[in-house]
Give the backbone structure.
Amino acid sequence: MADFGVEAEAGELGFDQERLARIDRYFRPYVDDGRLPGWLITVSRGGRLVHLSTYGHRDVESGRPVEPDTLWRWYSMTKPVTSVAAMMLYEEGALQLTDPVERFIPSFAGLRVFAGGSDLQPVTVPLARPMTVWHLLTHTAGLTYGFLRAHPVDAMLRARGFEWGTPEGFTLADSCDAWAGIPLLFQPGAEWNYSLATDVLGRVVEVASGQSLDAFFRTRIFEPLGMKETGFHVPEERADRLASLYVRGPGGVLSRTGTSGRAQTPPAHLSGGGGLIGPASDYHRFTRMLRGRGAVDGVRLLGSRTVDHMARNQLPGGADLEGFGRRLFAETAFEGTGFGLGFSVVTDPVALHGLASRGEYGWGGAASTAFWVDPREDITVSFFTQLMPSSTYPIRAYLRSLVRQALVD
């Protein structure tokens, strides 16, 4: 971790040092008054770190502090990694964005769509159009999550053991076959809904590549980029560096969740939608690759035009999530925000009601983590903590304004 540190003076990269310090001054009280266990923040410009700070504890009970090498559950910040993997295969001709998902997962050939009734007695209709790889990448596939608790289909997922996890022993292939037997929320392409789509995309990556998802990530993404400590579980020798996972309990008091120790066991289900764990330094390498339009330090994963395309709003007619999506979660704002191939994309900073650049893209995770890449300002930002769910506090909106107010060039 010796190479993970501030690489440039604030003024050299167009920041005011005192204004950058406002970031830490704002977020320290989140720890001091018990809202967060601890945090790590990075800000870079031109691929060089200008701000790296830590505060608080990776484990409150033991008093172990957050350190630069702390390991974090990325949850849905795994999704961009899976999306990059799929686009690497697209570039190689192993798949097309228009390919039906059933080409890779045969059980998806008989999908049905919810049309009424209840979770116990649903009325369904057949697909009007095939579900494609593009639908998975854009979350327009008609899939959902059991934990959303907003629709009878969500209840059907929970009844089959899919809420915050999967049934014991289920592999990714097993899960996809089970999901194929549950109706879709809507016809593919008709709406946007945050969902299990990226987990299904992970299975597409496995079939198209002939490798398990962990093997593809390791050999095709992590090793080339030097992301040496990221994976689907934490080995025993690194377990003491893993941050504990918390929820806001009665009276706002932090309570460590019962899932904190599960990260140390290799999972049967390799979740491309939320399974990765690693240090902030590894995610910084990944965002530097995105900032470099597919390449970093001479290592290229994707062509520059491919990354540009991924970061374009793909929603029909240039719509934003407010007009085309179901407002059921908090990983991004909805107004002035579209969706690309694996990322949210700012389409209208004025409608967003916040300091942002058109074309800025990123995502967040269920434990209140977040990242974004701003091609216009050449900035990448990340925030790591471990508080479930991500809707507990509006951390991301404040972080965005705090970073941008520090720019003075």
